[in-house]
Amino acid sequence: MKIVLLAGGVGGAKLAFGLSKILPPKDLTVVVNVGDDFTHLGLRICPDLDTVTYTLAGLDNRETGWGVAGDTFQALGALNKLDGPTWFRLGDRDLATHLWRTALLAQGLRLTEATSRICEALGVGPAVLPATDAAVPTRVVTDAGELDFQDYFVRRRCEPRVHRIVFRAIEAAAPTAEVLAAFQGADGIVFAPSNPFVSIEPVLALAGVRELIARKPAVAVSPIVGGEAIKGPAAKIMRELGLDVSPVGVAKRYADIIDGFLMDDVDAALAPAVQALGLEVRTAQSIMRTDADRESLARECLDLLAGLT
Amino acid sequence: MKIVLLAGGVGGAKLAFGLSKILPPKDLTVVVNVGDDFTHLGLRICPDLDTVTYTLAGLDNRETGWGVAGDTFQALGALNKLDGPTWFRLGDRDLATHLWRTALLAQGLRLTEATSRICEALGVGPAVLPATDAAVPTRVVTDAGELDFQDYFVRRRCEPRVHRIVFRAIEAAAPTAEVLAAFQGADGIVFAPSNPFVSIEPVLALAGVRELIARKPAVAVSPIVGGEAIKGPAAKIMRELGLDVSPVGVAKRYADIIDGFLMDDVDAALAPAVQALGLEVRTAQSIMRTDADRESLARECLDLLAGLT
Known about the structure:
The structure is a homodimer.
Chain A: E1 3-7, H1 10-20, E2 28-32, E3 38-40, E4 43-45, H2 47-56, H3 74-81, H4 92-106, H5 111-121, E5 127-130, E6 138-142, E7 145-148, H6 149-155, E8 162-167, H7 177-185, E9 188-191, H8 196-204, H9 209-214, E10 218-221, E11 224-225, E12 228-229, H10 234-240, H11 247-254, E13 260-264, H12 271-275, E14 280-284, H13 291-308
Parallel strand pairs in A: 1-2, 1-9, 2-5, 9-10, 10-13, 13-14
Antiparallel strand pairs in A: 3-4, 6-7, 6-8, 11-12
C-alpha cells in the first residue's frame, strides 16, 4: 500500500516516523510544507523539511521539537558577541544542514534534489519531498502588520493577533513532478496532525493538488485535541480567525477532498458532527509521546484508510 | 607617531598585537591583504582579516595559527556526515564571523564597513582595514594548473610546484579611501614578516600604493630567518621561483619603496648585502613566540623607523 503523508513540522514528522516503522521505505512518501521556509544570514532554512528529515534519521531533538538532539550553540554564542541576530536558534550541527543545502542550491540543484542528497547522507529511507521547488513564503497578516512567518512564529512567539494567512506566491508555484507522481501513484493519502493553516493548506493550495487528492482515499488526523492544539499556534489562529477550535472545525476545511477523519478519544462526543460532513470517523489516542505512540497512530491511519475501500 | 602596518596572516597579526601594546589605538592602522579571500559554502571568508582581528581581540588560537582559541567543530562534523566539503576547517565560533560578514555584505555594506562592525563588537581598538573592497583573488600557477589560493594553500597543502603568482583582478581594483588616508597620514609604515608574494605584494599592487609608501619612512621585517620561512610556504615559493631564499632576497623586492630592513640576529652576516641595497639594517630576535616577543619586535620596528628621519 503506497502512502503519501502531507506533513508540516513536529506532528507530521512524528507520524512519518511511525509510518516508516510499518511501511517499507519505497511505499512511504512524505510531502512537506515549505511555506515556513526563509532566508536568514544568507542561509536557506526549511524548518519543516528539517524536522521531518531529522526525525526520520533519528536525530530529532525531542525536548525542543526542533533542531538536532544534543546540538551545541557555539556559533550562535559567537554571533551574539558580534551583535548579530540570535532570535532564530541555530544549533551548530543544524547550521551544517543549512550551509550545505544553500551550497547545493547555489550549485543549481532544485530543493527536491538538495533534500534528497541530505536525506541520503543521513540514511533516511522514505522519500521526503518539498511540496514545491518554488519559494512560497507564508505571510501572516496581524495587528502588528503583515509578517514573514518565522518573524511571527519565532521572533514574536505568535503573539500578534492574526487576521489572515496569505500565500503570496502560490499562484505562480507548481507542485514538483515528484510530488505529482507520488499523489498519482498513491493508494492512500494521510494528512498529518499539522497546523491546517500554515502547514497543510500551503500544500493544498498548489495547482492541481486538491484535485489529485480528491481522487484518492484520504484521511486526516486532527491537530486539535480537547479544544487545544497539540503543539504550536493552530488553536490560537483558529480562535483569532473566528473558527470553531475543534476537530470539527478542522474536518470542515478538508471535507471536500478527504474520506476519513481520525481524532482523539477525548473528542469522541464530536464524532457525529464529523460524520455529518460525510466522513468516516475513528477515534484513538492521538498524542504521540513515545515511539510506540507514533507507530500506533500510524497503524490507526492505515486501518482507517484500508476500511474506506 | 602614526603607524600603518601592512599585514598578511599570522606574522602580521602578531606584530599588530605587539604594536597595539605600545601605540594608542588611534595611532595604529593595520592594512590587511585580501588576496586570500574566497567564498566557500556561500560564506565570504577573509583569512588574513580574521587572523588579525582575532589576534587583536585576544581570541586567536596560538596552537594552530588560525581560527578561534578553544573553538569547537560540531558544524564541520555534521557537514562531514552530509558528505559536504570539510577541507577548510571551519570552527563553530569562526563560522559566526563568516556568516555575519556575509550577511553584512549582503545588506550592502562594504567589506571595510563590515570589518569595522566586527572589530567594534570584539573590542578591537586599532583600525583594521582590508586593502581594498574589491575582490582580488590571488591565483597560483602551478604544476597542477592555475589554482585558487586556498585550494593551493589549504586543500593541497602547498604541495604543487609554483610557477607564478597572479593577481587576476588587480588592475580594476583600487585601495579604499580609508587605506589611502591611512597611508597619507602615516608617520611611518611597517611591512610585517608576512609572505612577500601572497600577503604583501597583493597590497602593493593596488593602484597608487607603492607611490604613497615611497614618500614615507618605511621599514620591512624579514619573514625569512636562517633560510626558512618562519611559517607558511614563503621559502618554498621563493625556491620554486628561483629566488634567493634569504632576507636579501626579500629586501630586494621592497628596496625601491622602503628605507629600513629588520632581520633576525641569525642572519646578521647578511647585513652588508642588505645595506648595499641602500637600506638601513637592524637585526633582532624576530621570532614571536610570546607576547613579550611580539612587543619587543614592535619596539625594534618603531626604533628603526625613528632612527631613519
